[in-house]
Amino acid sequence: MKTIVIFIITLILSLNCVAQSNGATSSAEIDINQNIPYVKIGAGYWIPTSKLSHFLNNAPFFELGIVIPDDSYSRSFELGVQLVIPQQENFFLLRDNNEDYQIEATTILNAYLKLNKYIWEKDRNRLELTFGLGISSIFLDPVTRAGDAVLDYDNINSFLVAPGLSYTFSFKDKSIIQISFDMQYTPFKMERGATKDLNSFSILPKIAYRF
Fold first, then answer.
1. For the chain, how big is the Rg over CA atoms in Å?
2. How many whole angstroms separate alpha carbon 31 and alpha carbon 67?
3. Is 65:210 a contact under the CB 8 Å cutoff?
4. Mean pLDDT of 100-115
5. pTM of the predicted structure, to 2 decimals
6. Phi and psi at residue 31, in whole multiples of 5°?
């Protein structure tokens, strides 16, 4: 959890620096091929698979990121966070003294650093192959008061591996729309859970906008 908090603080400071940089640069000077950091917001659909899908259904998610282009090497770096409001399919079960207590997921928060490699460019459009590493957290709440005394942690954490593919459209007004298809591997483990291993290969189609 501390790692995600530090990550979010870093992102906010980076966004502030980008805002100051953009304020000092006229919009006529900004181009998709220039090494100028920019902010993007996005939304999509989180589709879990494997064991995690037995407990959580598909759900919308929101994304905020800062992109730092490095066009001399046909690539960019991206620092971002994703917020998922999960839909519970079945409650997690926490086992204590041979009794099971129902636990629900309230929020999923992902923080990542991503490398975007340009593999094709034409006019104002390009295709990118992406690879990200980060951390994912599922925040938990007990369903009953009895479970409140048993659940002695607020969240479960996992490292995150996220390959993907993106197509970027750039318009004359310098705005950008990006359509992406990502996958995320997150091998969650739930301490004292009836199902301890909660591996998931999640699928994330999304659309993002640069401003």
1. 19
2. 14
3. no
4. 96
5. 0.82
6. -145, 155
Query: Which helix (H) or strand (E) segment is 12 a member of?
Result: helix 2-23
List pLDDT tens digits, range 5-44.
555 555 555 555 554 555 444 444 444 446 789 999 999 9
Residues 6 or more apart in contact with residue 166 via CB below 8 angstroms: 116, 127, 128, 130, 178, 179, 180, 181
CATH number at residue 9: 2.40.160.20
For residues 185-205, average pLDDT: 94
How far CA 28 is from CA of 25, 41, 130, 173, 205, in Å, comes to 8, 22, 29, 9, 32
How high is the pLDDT of residue 146?
86
The CA–CA distances, whole Å, from 7 to 10, 85, 155 equal 5, 20, 17
Sign of the Cα torsion 122, 119, 78, 177 reads positive
Q: Domain limits at 149?
A: 2-210
Q: Which of 18-27, 117-126, 185-194 has the weakest average pLDDT?
A: 18-27
* Bridge pairing between strands 176-189 and 155-170: antiparallel
3-state SS, 35-67, equals CCCEEEEEEEEEECCHHHHHCEECEEEEEEEEE
Please state the domain count of the chain.
1
Rounded to whole angstroms, the Cα distance separating 22 from 38 reads 8
Residues 6+ apart with CB under 8 A from 54: 89, 90, 195
Neighbouring-strand partners of residue 115: 77, 131
